[in-house]
Amino acid sequence: MSRIICSPSAYVQGKGELTKIAGYCKAMGCHKAYVMTSPSNEKRCGPAIKKGFDDEKMSYEFVVFGGECSDDEIQKHLHQLNDADIVIGVGGGKTLDTAKAVADTANIRMIIVPTIASTDAPCSRLSVVYTNEGAFDHYLPLKANPDMVIMDEDIIVKAPVRFLVAGIGDALATYYEAAACNEAGKVTTTGGHVTNAAMAVAKCCRDTLFKDGYKAKLAVMHKQCTPAVTNIIEANTYMSGVGFESGGLAAAHAIHDGLTVLKESHDYLHGEKVAYGLLCQLVMENKSEDEINEVISFCKKVGLPTCLKDLGLDQATDEELMEAAKASCAPEETIHNLPFPVTPEDVFAAIKVANELGK
Questions:
Q1: 3-class secondary structure for the chain?
Q2: Which of 4, 108, 208, 316 is 20 to 30 A from 239, alpha carbon to alpha carbon?
Q3: pLDDT, tens only, 255-312
């Protein structure tokens, strides 16, 4: 089996990047842009993006994202594309995953513009599809990574700090999941085995989070962009994106998916649930207390969940937690990338033990 590493064709991060999007589109040979975003993000980002298109005298259309990356939402936008030859997704993870799915299905170019650094979704050739009600449904593999990912630091530092912290939670799992996949010799979503380069990126991601995560949180609380913030935006987005896709996912993300069957978890962000899923994975792997405590201490310091109460699940019954555990172990789930067999009973036990360790 081949070793494969994937990444977006270009990753651009800096200040004032929104006004340059039209120029990037023209450089790709595109003529009309389909800009997908929420009403709130159109208000935040629309003026700068529209000015860039007007200055470049390039045609564009802003369209509203419906809120869930569902099959119905993807189909809705496919029917609205008309003569657009590039899709630009502007917003959070679900907006971006929908934009990627639409562009990939229509075989046109795509630019991804996160307004928050909350997930590693922007860089990948994968969309996470949910039901219309917000429960995890399935992973949708795409033919290619985005043509370009653009991170405008001026926009990202103005978002609520909770989003940056959630991105840290999502990125924190990257190294540990990739290490498990590598140990087990599993195939990643790229269709190949883990590369040394992917492992190096994943390790750099973890080390950057430990070094700069708390400092970046403090800076964003005051809407400031410091070198630590710049590093964490890159870690949350690019390093974690390349690291998870080419390094592989394991239990942390599978347990996130399982927790989405509990409606109480829907008020919590993807990375917040992934962080708790990581604690469960470390329990399942029987990592040392020192290693587990290092992760717990870091999570507490930056404000990530470390127990069920932190996810609104302290009143969940054992039956409900077992339902989440069963969903985590569905045949297509990434929990089976661990280097040992896993049952719902194993996951249930890990959820309970991680809860006690993290209290």
A1: CCECCCCCCCEEEECCHHHHHHHHHHHCCCCEEEEEECHHHHHHHHHHHHHHHHHHCCEEEEEECCCCCCHHHHHHHHHHCCCCCEEEEEECHHHHHHHHHHHHHHCCEEEEEECCCCCCHHHCCEEEEECCCCCEEEEEECCCCCCEEEEEHHHHCCCCHHHHHHHHHHHHHHHHHHHHHHHHCCECCCCCECCHHHHHHHHHHHHHHHHHHHHHHHHHHCCCCCHHHHHHHHHHHHHHHHHHHHHCCCHHHHHHHHHCCCHHHHHCCHHHHHHHHHHHHHHHCCCCHHHHHHHHHHHHHHCCCCCHHHHCCCCCCHHHHHHHHHHHCCCCCHHHHCCCCCCHHHHHHHHHHHHHHHC
A2: 108
A3: 999 999 999 999 999 999 999 999 999 999 999 999 999 999 999 999 999 999 999 9
Whether the CB-CB separation of 177 and 240 falls below 8 Å is answered with: no
Q: Which pLDDT score is estimated for 134?
A: 85
- Residues with Cβ < 8 Å from 63, sequence gap 6 or more? 34, 35, 36, 37, 77, 80
Query: How far is residue 352 CA from its own chain's centroid?
Result: 25
210 is written with which tokens? 């430990």
Residues noted as catalytic:
170, 253, 256, 270
pLDDT < 70 regions, the chain: none
% of residues, the chain, pLDDT over 70? 100
